[in-house]
Hints:
The complex is a heterotetramer, with two copies of chain A and two copies of chain C.
Chain A: H1 32-46, E1 54-58, H2 62-65, E2 75-78, H3 84-92, E3 99-105, H4 106-110, H5 114-123, E4 127-133, E5 136-137, E6 143-144, E7 153-154, E8 158-159, H6 167-173, E9 178-183, H7 187-198, E10 203-209, H8 225-231, E11 232-234, E12 236-241, E13 258-262, E14 268-273, H9 283-296, E15 299-306, H10 330-333, H11 338-346
Parallel strand pairs in A: 1-2, 1-3, 3-4, 4-10, 9-10, 11-15
Antiparallel strand pairs in A: 5-6, 7-8, 9-15, 12-14, 13-14
Chain C: E1 18-19, E2 21-29, H1 34-47, E3 52-57, E4 66-74, E5 85-90, H2 96-102, E6 103-112, E7 125-129, H3 131-138, H4 142-148, H5 150-161, H6 165-175, H7 180-200, E8 207-208, E9 219-222, H8 223-233, E10 238-241, H9 249-262, E11 273-276, H10 280-292, E12 297-301, H11 303-319, E13 323-331, E14 337-341, H12 346-350, E15 360-362, H13 367-384, E16 387-393, H14 394-398, E17 400-403, H15 421-426, E18 458-460, H16 474-493, E19 499-501, E20 508-513, H17 517-529, E21 534-539, E22 541-542, H18 546-554, E23 557-562, H19 568-576, E24 584-588, H20 597-608
Bound molecules: thiamine diphosphate (2 copies), iron/sulfur cluster (2 copies) and magnesium ion (2 copies).
Amino acid sequence: xxxxxxxxxxxxxxxxxxxxxxxxxxxxxxxxxxxxxxxxxxxxxxxxxxxxxxxxxxxxxxxxxxxxxxxxxxxxxxxxxxxxxxxxxxxxxxxxxxxxxxxxxxxxxxxxxxxxxxxxxxxxxxxxxxxxxxxxxxxxxxxxxxxxxxxxxxxxxxxxxxxxxxxxxxxxxxxxxxxxxxxxxxxxxxxxxxxxxxxxxxxxxxxxxxxxxxxxxxxxxxxxxxxxxxxxxxxxxxxxxxxxxxxxxxxxxxxxxxxxxxxxxxxxxxxxxxxxxxxxxxxxxxxxxxxxxxxxxxxxxxxxxxxxxxxxxxxxxxxxxxxxxxxxxxxxxxxxxxxxxxxxxxxx
Amino acid sequence: xxxxxxxxxxxxxxxxxxxxxxxxxxxxxxxxxxxxxxxxxxxxxxxxxxxxxxxxxxxxxxxxxxxxxxxxxxxxxxxxxxxxxxxxxxxxxxxxxxxxxxxxxxxxxxxxxxxxxxxxxxxxxxxxxxxxxxxxxxxxxxxxxxxxxxxxxxxxxxxxxxxxxxxxxxxxxxxxxxxxxxxxxxxxxxxxxxxxxxxxxxxxxxxxxxxxxxxxxxxxxxxxxxxxxxxxxxxxxxxxxxxxxxxxxxxxxxxxxxxxxxxxxxxxxxxxxxxxxxxxxxxxxxxxxxxxxxxxxxxxxxxxxxxxxxxxxxxxxxxxxxxxxxxxxxxxxxxxxxxxxxxxxxxx
Amino acid sequence: xxxxxxxxxxxxxxxxxxxxxxxxxxxxxxxxxxxxxxxxxxxxxxxxxxxxxxxxxxxxxxxxxxxxxxxxxxxxxxxxxxxxxxxxxxxxxxxxxxxxxxxxxxxxxxxxxxxxxxxxxxxxxxxxxxxxxxxxxxxxxxxxxxxxxxxxxxxxxxxxxxxxxxxxxxxxxxxxxxxxxxxxxxxxxxxxxxxxxxxxxxxxxxxxxxxxxxxxxxxxxxxxxxxxxxxxxxxxxxxxxxxxxxxxxxxxxxxxxxxxxxxxxxxxxxxxxxxxxxxxxxxxxxxxxxxxxxxxxxxxxxxxxxxxxxxxxxxxxxxxxxxxxxxxxxxxxxxxxxxxxxxxxxxxxxxxxxxxxxxxxxxxxxxxxxxxxxxxxxxxxxxxxxxxxxxxxxxxxxxxxxxxxxxxxxxxxxxxxxxxxxxxxxxxxxxxxxxxxxxxxxxxxxxxxxxxxxxxxxxxxxxxxxxxxxxxxxxxxxxxxxxxxxxxxxxxxxxxxxxxxxxxxxxxxxxxxxxxxxxxxxxxxxxxxxxxxxxxxxxxxxxxxxxxxxxxxxxxxxxxxxxxxxxxxxxxxxxxxxxxxxxxxxxxxxxxxxxxxxxxxxxxxxxxxx
Amino acid sequence: xxxxxxxxxxxxxxxxxxxxxxxxxxxxxxxxxxxxxxxxxxxxxxxxxxxxxxxxxxxxxxxxxxxxxxxxxxxxxxxxxxxxxxxxxxxxxxxxxxxxxxxxxxxxxxxxxxxxxxxxxxxxxxxxxxxxxxxxxxxxxxxxxxxxxxxxxxxxxxxxxxxxxxxxxxxxxxxxxxxxxxxxxxxxxxxxxxxxxxxxxxxxxxxxxxxxxxxxxxxxxxxxxxxxxxxxxxxxxxxxxxxxxxxxxxxxxxxxxxxxxxxxxxxxxxxxxxxxxxxxxxxxxxxxxxxxxxxxxxxxxxxxxxxxxxxxxxxxxxxxxxxxxxxxxxxxxxxxxxxxxxxxxxxxxxxxxxxxxxxxxxxxxxxxxxxxxxxxxxxxxxxxxxxxxxxxxxxxxxxxxxxxxxxxxxxxxxxxxxxxxxxxxxxxxxxxxxxxxxxxxxxxxxxxxxxxxxxxxxxxxxxxxxxxxxxxxxxxxxxxxxxxxxxxxxxxxxxxxxxxxxxxxxxxxxxxxxxxxxxxxxxxxxxxxxxxxxxxxxxxxxxxxxxxxxxxxxxxxxxxxxxxxxxxxxxxxxxxxxxxxxxxxxxxxxxxxxxxxxxxxxxxxxxxxx
Lengths: 348, 348, 610, 610
Ligand SMILES: Cc1ncc(C[n+]2csc(CCOP(=O)(O)OP(=O)(O)O)c2C)c(N)n1
Ligand SMILES: Cc1ncc(C[n+]2csc(CCOP(=O)(O)OP(=O)(O)O)c2C)c(N)n1
Ligand code: SF4
Ligand code: SF4
Ligand SMILES: [Mg+2]
Ligand SMILES: [Mg+2]
């Protein structure tokens, strides 16, 4: 049985899909980043999120431009190259009731931004952090980024001689609380993972292979559409069931072949076993499986790791639940006059 | 049988130990960093290294001051906070026949310097990279660094709420080619590991727990002497046999319980089995073992990972073997006059 | 309060007492805990009503290197550093010889008697102190002995100079927050030392202190703590920082004080958040993010951190994000002298960021002003939607300063032009984030969480039009950048105005800023004695206000005194007022020390005699 | 060489030919490959001996946004951008309407005939081009069709304006490095288009080109390639870089050219190393490391990168490490307009680094000078042991410039004062890394690998004495910092001197720097026609040399023309020469465009008429 659906024209909060759109993209036709933007739009629409309750962040790059192309009604900040995590961290305190979506590129995250990327994972900021991973610097015309595979040859750039950085391995070594990989060519999975990420109370890393059709889309490149299509291997058939809906698992799979995980807000993740059962709770197994897939030349996708036990950054700060910091007024923020005398008396 | 020894006053190249010393330390009495300096002196002396053939590097911090306190006859560069790796990378090309020793702190490496730390591992720069790890910023008076364990309480700083960064895990996820952990309180092991690192043709990471006696030496702290002494567990009994010496394994251990590894220069590492046999070639097992030890609250020391197959940075650059770049002259560096006409002809 | 009685030395016959007008320096080793005893002395003197100042000269080291603490008592109220010291207390064998040389003839030299040096000076009095013996007798636990040893000099000095034991007790109680055990242990030792000194030493130097009432109503505070407290009263909501000397004590003071003043007493909930960032790049990034989200955000650092923040400052300037940056300056360039004071970041901050930028800079000169600018900086930043720098320095930030007490903000918080849902509803025309509706260059902003459907906008460091839409159009760019100049000119009108001190008949001006005020005030008295009358102006902000120009106009010559090599304030003044360049004389000093009046006097005299 | 013959249009009856003196603009979409055809046109014209310049106006985007390329032919040799365009080639439907408006009356409008707009202008000639049809007929493989479509306008323009087919062929051969297949395909299409145009379009506009001999011996080069080649002749040994527009093409040109010129032809061994760093913090760190180790090290970036490099520059200044930094400026602040040109980083670079610093800055103004400063910067950096900035800009760096050919370095490499083992042996007194032996402020250095036991030293950013030993001493600090000023003053004496152009009877000066020279030269001719005689000076370095002062002194008024908002060169001149501030007039422009002569003329006239 299919899940409850909206009436087709609007979602449950009465918004039309175009109210989740952004400006017209200026990215290349066929760029993976555009399809991810579309899935962000779809996921937010289907999750019935009020656009004003989302904040968007990005660094600098083609990927980082894309927040201008979705969710026009959300606030956004296109920050500096590699330093989106810090801005998102500070901004998150303005109003902790909001949800945040960040888009970064592989260069933005794994080159100039590696330090901030690792530290924001440590802090478990509540943020959907999407790495639109194409192995190159798109916006500066195709130089290798740190995720480019060793031995990759590009016409103008020659051959890449360095070891690649694997975003997922970095997230695992930093013990991030939600770690997934996907492929821009696999729209459905991207969307379902996005929905799950949006309900996660902590940092959700989504490493999405997102081909750069202009500079790195030759079939032998590990960030190309062709390669992705041929080598994608899903860890599980992943779907997200919002808390409003009943979980119905259709009959294709025998009992025991499905794993369900409940998120903080009561939504459920349904992981249907494909080849073997995979437990995203086991970080060490995740490392092993990811490394194996890298060695075998497979693009392993799905929810790789999930830990719902660690508190998010905001939670650690003991802020009022009922109203956001950025609406507080002088009355709350400025200590009373009488306190000052006591202070002055202490100043000796 | 013991290995060949120098005459006691000088080493095989006729230098006395004091010729490996540096200035008088200005670090606190008892600081772990001082004992590491002493082992650097001892290792270089025993390895018969010409001091002028070493270059020293450091970032900023108490630890980073220490290169002034060993090897006075070596060139050195006390660089910027967290950015020693880049300086060492550039400087290494001046004369690739030299060996380089770098000292950094946990703050220097895992906070401000995390990005450069990770990228220098990717490049496999030939460098002995020592992290003098005390969990705090010594020089700025004891604030938590990113390696401080979650829950650590310090008098002035309160409680640390963030997840620690594990230098070794970072090195493993970056696939560094030589990864060891040790403890400043275990002088012999530090020295033997240093010798091995000094013969490695690539980046050697030495994460050495080096207690800050002034700010973080309470027995319950994981970077204290007491904790280290009580919880150190060696992976193996490690010793280094220089290439000039015959490998003699003394009789204590039955055959099969010893692993020997040959380094690039022909030296040998002898790993004697303690509890179980450990293969430093297996990176995935290393991750598992390290994580397990962290969970069990054990300070696992020894040579954790070694990979002698990957080429060092300099090797990838196809430089002349016979003479250093920094001694080249105009004759070699400036193309002949006649080449310019051809160039000008192309400029249209 | 118990009145404590101890003996004090009688004035030796034939000696003319010098009362409340000298300096004494304590030479110890870093990390030996002498900071506690030095502060005890300073506070006791202050409580005696004597104008006092203390300067800590410490190395970039945690333990073992020489460190000096100089206390100046001045009946005339001078609180600048002096170059001379009448009394030295020597506890560090490494510097014993040089410390001995420091004492002015006629002065006194106290030393721990276990430091055996066979040197004597017969133009001063030598007072050995049996430090080890007294400590042993005190019964202090072995672990604490090194630490309490410092109380011996407190007691000896007290006895010999006449420092009030009551006041010392008060200071001890303050220091230990009333914990009786350490108070008793330390005070016991102090008393014993005082008695021993009075009984055993023969006073020959003329230096005494006597109670006054010149500190009534004043406070003693360091600039960093003052700034932290001021920020708390300014409603700080977000602090991100990275440790660096000499700025660390600002965020640390904030952390240690804010809970009491701001947490909800019932729920314990906080209306602020503090993060120790991984570096300064992240610290400023977080602060910019917080400022953008509508919080009063601050970060504090010193030169190396400012350097790292450069790119983010450019973004904040151009995207118009309010954020407050305290730069507690130490000696640069580069790592420089991390524990020495300087005013050397002025031009750098003024031109910070690639492309055309103009930064607002506040220049506090007293602890009281650090408090004031602590809160006011937020108002200025939010009103003008731009980064505001506050340039303090190591001397002002880390030393104790006698100052007017903190004053409660005399203005309500100014959150600037910010639209919430209700405001958006009322708008007649389309709101544009960067539209200059009022002609003052300052647009209206909205922040996240605003649920009005037209309130959102996309912030960026790239070219944008009035509606924050990406634009590469030449004219749009030029107009926006011209508006930013307009905004800066608006800011100029509400900057803290300079403070002037006048003398009748002066034809010479001295212009300075920040922590050098005390030295300049004092120097002006000396210059007057030497027949040179001066008026002074202490500039408190950039952009300069109209008064600065008037001041430059008025005098035949204006000396611009500052603590850096290149005369950076002089450079900025030259740039702004080249018409007066001919009469501005740059008097820069860059030795890392707090300025002394005698240097100022000599420098001016030398110029005047040219 | 085969001489290619094609028809060209006859001059229409009654029309007065305008020969070699007009501009044409090609409007396309970014990423459509039009860069190749535009360069073909430019090069063909250049080879016809006609002075020519090309300006690419492109968006910060990879594909799809509008982009324009303007080619100016000028029999008088003017190569600045013009504000007007006589001919427009419209291939982008998104900008069709505005492109049509751009054409000056009497001009011509070529357009792809599949762009169907029902707009006409009767004051210009409209030429539809059957782009799709011709491409189809060319037999180009489908994948290449979009790309070769651009050849249609090349051919059409060639036929209609009289561009030499031979020269186009030459340019094609050059572009494709002699690969016959693409040459034939493209040339076939060009010829077909030219024939079609001549046969089917009726020429009504008066614009023609004719061969001249005004480019003999000149080259056509972009500044970034020139700088890269100059660096190679300067013996560059280490390059670390991070991609950023508009600087990337400098390192990329270096990478693509250095192997041929420098690798050992037998062994293939390299005497240099190149690293793409993870960011600019690392790029400068590596370059500083390499410079310190004795290599000629370079990095190149633009504003955002310079901002990130700030702290390392301070270290290099203070530890005295030679390193060359190219800043190819784009419009700031912040991310700004990444694909627009500017001279807006001047004050920032001049004051770069916290504390007191003084930076050496070279200011090339032609491609030839980019080459020269490419090698000379190393000599200056090593001679003075300090960072040397070269400030270029997007216009100079990325556009093609007609220029004097590159000249082989006229001086041997200057490696500065460096001691190797033999030199150490000969020393009479103890060597000190920071000792000013010669009184010029420049000490002697040693580098790693020197085996002499006294040659090593410990480099640091903290205070140090003459022997590079850590020091917190005031006097040591002051003396060292004073020596650095001495060094800067030494550098002043050997900076590239400014270039002046004089007119008899001029009482007005125009001072500028960098890429604006062409516009100013041209404007001076117009001003002369308007009765205003001017002399000009193009400053080529900071610190300013003595000639600058003489120039300022000489004229009643000096206009300082530059591409930024705040008149940054004017600011630096004011600072250095406040005595002339009264007669300096700042004329800044910051629209992101290469300067045009008409703007300069108007701006000066407006001031003159005040
Ligand atoms: C400090 C700084 N350095 C360099 C740049 C130039 N730059 C812009 S985008 C970019 C790379 C973007 O690559 P990536 O993050 O992979 O994004 P993509 O374009 O591939 O989506 C660079 C280097 C910049 N904007 N800022
Ligand atoms: C850019 C910059 N920020 C801050 C500092 C101040 N600082 C000096 S040392 C240090 C921390 C050193 O900690 P660590 O690397 O752990 O070394 P340790 O002193 O503990 O050995 C800091 C933050 C600095 N020197 N530079
Ligand atoms: S250049 Fe690559 S990454 Fe950028 S928009 Fe085009 S396809 Fe996407
Ligand atoms: S403060 Fe800590 S790290 Fe620094 S020298 Fe002292 S003990 Fe060592
Ligand atoms: Mg990318
Ligand atoms: Mg540490």
